[in-house]
Request: fold
Amino acid sequence: MSRIAARFAALKKEGRGALVTFLTGFDPDRATSLEILQGLPAAGADVIEIGVPFTDPMADGPSIQKAGLRGLKAGATARGILDLVREFRATEKDTPVVLMGYYNPILVYGVARFCADAAAVGVDGLIIVDVPPEEADEIEPHTSANGLDLIRLIAPTTDEARLPRVLGATTGFIYYVAITGITGTRSADYASLAPAIAALKRHTDLPVAIGFGIRSPEQAAIAAVTADGAVVGTALVDTLAATLDAEGRATAETVPAVLGKVSSLAQAVRTARRAAA
Reply:
């Protein structure tokens, strides 16, 4: 069983949803990024997404775009992100790690080599936002051969005709995009989430995590009750950015602020179903 499947199965047995955290690799620098990464499991992150910085992040809003630019300025590369995961795995063996980003850095690295190297350092899954199932023939054989989950985004606009194709190409968990548009620009319509997730669950046994538009502990709790997990990214990126100095460098507040935000989100997610009962 993969780390992702094992983690969601364990959480289901516990009767709670997952907190999935997103931060951009090398933001604002490699050392700070690694320190935050190493602190995430103890702070309450159940699954960790690491953004691979890219110059044209078309699905991301201003906050994550700026985080990507900070990461690139700090020297982030695909190889550098893999090395970050390698160091993380030296002390943390159980928490699933998912790389989220775009196809171009993988293509430049070499698809087969990237998938093999990612698996070797302890990556568990990939979210490649600009590769739909219909165009994934170049990468799917390599993710499968290396035991990497290929996690798909499903949007409110994904219709019944296309849904089986997307679900059939998905492993690990489903990332349900709660809003139409880019990350971090508005909050989800929580009244519409329950019927949307219920409809999706009729087609799949995979866990569903809700992302895009979740910023507060209260919103994360709703998502964790409605589905199998909540994905929080922009709120963590904004928390990090608010601690930086005028030159965009980390300060003494950066790491504790981010991990403190994760702890508050985790507390809400872990008690959400009990509170809703």
Remarks:
- Strands lie at 18-24, 47-51, 97-101, 125-128, 149-150, 153-154, 174-177, 208-211, 229-232.
- The domain at 3-276 is CATH 3.20.20.70 (TIM Barrel).
- The chain has one domain: 3-276.
